[in-house]
Specification:
The complex is a heterodimer of chains A (334) and B (323). Helices cover 28% and strands 25% of the residues of chain A. Chain A has 334 residues and is of the alpha+beta class. Chain A has a single domain, classed as Ribosomal Protein S5, domain 2, CATH 3.30.230.70. In chain A, strands 1-2-3-5-4 form a five-stranded mixed sheet. Chain A has a four-stranded antiparallel sheet with strand order 8-7-9-10. The longest helix of chain A has 36 residues. Chain B is of the alpha+beta class and 323 residues long. Chain B has one domain: GHMP Kinase, N-terminal domain (Ribosomal Protein S5, domain 2). Helices cover 24% and strands 25% of the residues of chain B. In chain B, the strands form three sheets. In chain B, strands 1, 2, 3, 5, 6 and 7 form a six-stranded mixed sheet that branches. Chain B is elongated. The relative contact order of chain B is 0.18. The chains are: A alpha+beta (334), B alpha+beta (323). At the A-B interface, β4, α1, β6, β9 and β10 of A face β4, α2, β13 and α6 of B. β10 of chain A pairs antiparallel with β13 of chain B, so a sheet runs across the interface.
């Protein structure tokens, strides 16, 4: 197609789009003061509601600061009766995670990319053990997550500081582990919200699964110096980490997990980053414990959301007995 | 869904009983931490910077070719940020493309996109995701493979890691893929730069392969990462599980390690849960991993795997064309 060739008569814009630069009024002014960060062992406030979508069996909506996602649960519904469908003694669970095209800074297509598919299989892993699938033979349960808004790279890259008299902007590299932190927060949110939606759908489960994230940071100087031992001593564990690392810190490892608090079991574990093994698995344990603590705090919100449905059923069934007493006649008119 | 096995419930139950004994009895009479023998060779593809072929008794055979291309630093998304993660591209392909049908390569080791029916259409994208993740994660906090890919200011190598599975009908274990990628990376050589480092001009290289530079310096650490599957049945932990053991197991992990010194000790660079069959256990037994079991499983990998990874590295170095 001729349309593919670049148009030389016009000044073409960059294909990926740009964000308008923000100029400082004067270069002498101090660089933007950092927002007061929340304590490392604090998680962001979580908003979780169930039953917002009426056309599906169960649904939930979750909001953690910039992250917004909605989960629909379809089923359990019978598998199609074709010859190619294998017999399923347990319910077949399918999970799907999709970013809305407008959910991140760069537009995402409608076809799921590899990171979305990966999130989907992580979510599957987190939920599959918790659902009592043997109670729903020959049926299918579908969990569909749509991410409406997500924390992307953060404001620090959307704003370009250009000093007076300088013509070029210095390029920089992403720190490693940035993508893991971003996806980790999304995955933890997906797990928590999907559990709420499954509870809303009335699907029997062994326990609710809540998601938690924690990242271990070390001082920037420590990581560059070759010393292996000293980096271990002053680690900073941040629960529910933001995309931008704390000042002067560099990320070491991120842990995302799905946790069943009542059973004290981890259904899904995803650790990425470097963890030393000098003291056996002690370093990994610390990180996992932090992520579990984050998952425990999400569990409180999850419990409240799951209660909503119970309350709804109680409210619906409670007025029934008095109405029975009032009149025994039932009008059978159409 | 877990990889389908032809095992019946009574067979799974028998396996479960025998694997949860103390000491356990594995089907092939291995000890819990013993690996199966593999056939591996490297540096045999003339058109590649690094290559490896690995054969495993049950998991099948795969070939990895690594090619490097010179590329100019480019910013995507933002004008000011270079996304270095794009410098490495991993793809996993199943030979013949016949990856459809039960028990095919789709859903490698249960840790790729095996999410039930939705997982069927997506090929092996999932495997590529975790292979790359392990490669990059080793760099968190300090040394990174991406630093090795910098040629000069404004230029870098782009690394294509292509994995070809030759046996589409078997159940490839994560160990097969990661062993092959590990060997290929270990035997990768890049041509030596002859132009100065700090010039923006197009870099030039020596065509003499005898002075080419290894991607991973053979005597330095960390070494390329390696992912080990580990499963738990009852209180027992098994390394390098067979298909039947995965189908029986209650919990599974893939632990990615990279050798951190010449003694054979390893750093953990990643842990992922692996999908297992939960075939043999009783209902309501164990639905996840508790912290004690997690510690036990990771410890088994860290303790036993160092020697295996070290041995593999030594074999690779013996076979390399510049050995």
């Amino acid at each position: 197609m001729a349309a593919r060739a670049p148009d030389r008569r016009r000044n073409n814009p960059p294909s990926h789009g740009t964000t308008p630069p923000v100029f400082l009024s004067s270069s002498s002014e101090a660089v933007k003061p950092k927002q007061p960060s929340r304590p490392a062992d604090d998680v962001r406030k979580i908003f979780l509601r169930t039953g917002l979508i009426s056309s599906v069996t169960g649904s939930s909506f979750l909001e953690i600061a910039p992250l917004k996602l909605s989960v629909s649960v379809l089923g359990p519904r019978p598998l199609p009766r074709t010859s190619s469908t294998p017999f399923a003694a347990q319910a077949i669970l399918t999970t799907e995670v999709k970013f809305a095209p407008f959910a991140s800074t760069v537009r995402r297509g409608y076809i799921r990319d590899s990171s979305e598919r990966d999130l989907g299989s992580r979510l599957y892993q987190a939920l599959v053990g918790a659902i009592r699938r043997e109670l729903y033979p020959k049926s299918r349960i579908e969990v569909v997550v749509t991410i409406l808004d997500s924390e992307d790279e953060g404001d620090d890259v959307n704003t370009v500081y250009i000093e007076e008299g300088k013509t070029t902007v210095e390029t920089k590299f992403w720190d490693s582990g940035r993508a893991e932190r971003a996806l980790g927060v999304v995955l933890a949110g997906c797990i928590t919200a999907a559990s709420a939606a499954l509870a809303d759908a009335g699907i029997e489960m062994f326990d609710l699964v809540s998601g938690g994230v924690a990242t271990a940071f070390v001082d920037e100087v420590n990581s560059k110096g070759k010393g292996k031992g000293d980096a271990v001593s002053n680690k900073l564990y941040v629960r529910d980490p933001a995309i931008a690392p704390p000042e002067g810190k560099t990320p070491l490892a991120t842990c995302v997990l799905g946790y069943m608090a009542a059973r004290d079991e981890i259904s899904e574990l995803w650790i990425s980053g470097k963890i030393g093994t000098k003291n056996g698995t002690a370093e990994m344990d610390e990180l996992v414990d932090e992520a579990i603590a984050a998952a425990r705090s999400a569990r409180g919100v999850l419990n409240e959301a799951a209660k909503e449905r119970v309350q709804f059923i109680v409210d619906k069934t409670a007025p029934a007995p008095p109405s029975k007493g009032e009149s025994t006649d039932i009008e059978m008119s159409g | 869904m877990p990889p389908p096995t032809p095992l019946s419930p009574p067979e799974l139950s028998y396996l479960y009983a025998s694997l949860s004994l103390s000491p356990p009895i594995r089907l092939d009479l291995r000890t819990p931490t013993q690996f199966r023998p593999i056939v591996a060779e490297c540096s045999f593809l003339p058109h590649c910077n690094g290559s490896a072929r690995v054969c495993m008794s049950e998991a099948g055979e795969c070939i990895v070719g690594i090619k490097a291309e010179v590329e100019k630093d480019a910013t995507t998304k933002y004008v000011t940020v270079i996304e270095r993660e794009k410098w490495i591209e991993v793809s996993v392909e199943v030979a013949g493309g016949g990856a459809s049908g039960a028990g095919s390569g789709v859903g490698i080791g249960g840790i790729s996109g095996a999410g039930g029916a939705t997982g069927r259409d997506e090929g092996d994208g999932g495997a590529a995701v975790w292979l790359k993740e392990g490669l990059l994660a080793g760099g968190a906090g300090g040394w990174s493979i991406l630093d090795r890919l910098v040629i000069s200011s404004g230029w870098h190598w782009k690394l294509y890691i292509d994995v070809l599975l030759l046996t589409p009908t078997s159940h490839p274990s994560p160990l097969l893929l990661s062993t092959a990628v590990n060997m290929a990376l270990d035997s990768t050589y890049l041509p030596k730069l002859t132009s100065p480092h700090d010039v923006d001009d197009i870099p030039t290289f020596s065509d003499d392969w005898a002075i080419s530079v290894p991607l991973y310096e053979p005597t330095t650490f960390p070494r390329p990462p390696m992912s080990l599957p580990v499963v738990a049945v009852g209180d027992n932990v098994f390394l390098d599980p067979s298909v039947a053991e995965v189908a029986t197991a209650e919990a599974g992990l893939v632990v990615t390690l990279s050798l951190s010194d010449s003694e054979g000790s390893c750093d953990i660079v990643g842990v992922r849960s692996m999908e297992v069959g939960r075939g043999g256990g009783k209902e309501g037994d164990r639905k996840g991993i508790n912290r004690k079991l997690l510690r036990q499983m990771v410890n088994a990998c860290v303790k036993e795997a160092g020697g295996v990874i070290k041995g593999l590295g030594e074999t690779t170095h013996k076979q390399m064309f510049r050995a």
